[in-house]
Amino acid sequence: MPHINLLPWREQQRQASQQKFLTILAVIVASSLALMYLMGTFYDGLRQGQEIKNRYLQGEIVKLDKRIGEIEGLNKQKENLQRRIRLIEVLQSNRNLGTQIIDEVARVVPAGVYLTSLERTGDMIKVIGRSESNNRLSQMLRAVESSYLLERPVIQGIVAGSNDDRLLSDFMMHFYVKSFEQMEQERQQGDDTQSGVPAT
After folding, report:
1. How far apart are CA 112 and CA 106, in angstroms?
2. Which of 51, 132, 187, 192 is found 20 to 30 A from 90 (Cα to Cα)?
3. Average pLDDT, integer, range 15-24
4. Is position 190 within any domain?
5. CA angle, 91 then 96 then 102, to 5°
6. How far apart are CA 21 and CA 23, in angstroms?
7. Whether residue 38 sits in one domain with residue 89
8. pLDDT band at residue 195, thresholds of 50, 70 and 90?
């Protein structure tokens, strides 16, 4: 006699399938939530770490800005001191300038040239004198051009004259006194040349 299953097996199978589906769905949802939580925790840690780095960098920037301000203040003090030093050097140089000019004029005048008049107007010095020959005047011009203190010699006129024993030419010349800045620049260039540093 054949066995007939009268139990609702299809309904039981459907319920088992639904239960399995719900279980899988719950596992997926739980896994997704756990993964999202872990990712959120990870990125939150990264954000906190970056905020700590940013705060550190901001603190260092504040310190550097403060140091830069101090350096700028020191640079201003240095510039003020340099200006004062230059002013003192100019005043010191101008105090002895008259004596230096007389000494330098005496040095550039060669033998055979005699000065009868010397007049200073500002930076220009005008001299009147007599010379035994034009070669002597050329020597004087070269001496003025190579002087550390004098520059730009110009002969304004030469007039041949006669004296008892020998012929002397009357001449008139003017040249200029170099500025303190120009003398300092030439001195610096000389120091650089001696030390092997090319002048700029």
Report:
1. 13
2. 192
3. 86
4. no
5. 140
6. 5
7. yes
8. low
CATH of the domain at 155: 3.30.1360.10
CA dihedral 7, 10, 16, 17 (to 10 degrees): 180
What pLDDT was estimated at residue 200?
A: 44
Under 8 Å between Cβ of 167 and 189: no
Helix (H, G, I), strand (E, B) or coil at 196: coil
User: Using CA atoms, how far apart are residues 108 and 99, in angstroms rounded to an integer?
Assistant: 14
Same domain? 66 vs 146: no
Alpha carbon of residue 33 to chain centroid: 62
Tokens in use for 107?
């040095």
**How many domains is the chain built from?**
2
- Mean pLDDT across 50-54: 91
Q: How many residues does the chain have?
A: 200
Fill in the amino acid letter for 18: Q
Q: How far apart are CA 33 and CA 31, in angstroms?
A: 5
Token pair, residue 161, equals 């004259």
The domain of 79 spans 19-108
